[in-house]
# Entry
Amino acid sequence: MKDFYVMLHNFNSNEVEKYNIMPYLIDVYKDCQEKEHWWMFEDANRCPLTREEFILFVKRVCKYQFWSRCQYEWLMIGWPPGKTDTLEDCKKIINSSIKVDAFDQIEMNLSIIADIFKENVKEL
# Structure
């Protein structure tokens, strides 16, 4: 099985970690196969066949799991952060940061992830 990793912040250890999303996608795929219920498709109750269907599968499944959940979010700032002499300086840095979650990383790589996932499904 080929992997695809996103970066997550483990707030327990305060470390940035790599997280492989493929096992989760494969588990959802197998679960849908067993139940014969493909909840991510509105008009077809079958497994994805085309590249576009695989992209839609990955997008909907990952959005459901990873989008806007605190444990998958972290803040990103530029480095070096700039002046940090006062509390006001620190507030400016925090206000200029952007929130990144696992789904943001997945969304910008959807077609790549879908192709990897499609290859992995063929090996099942």
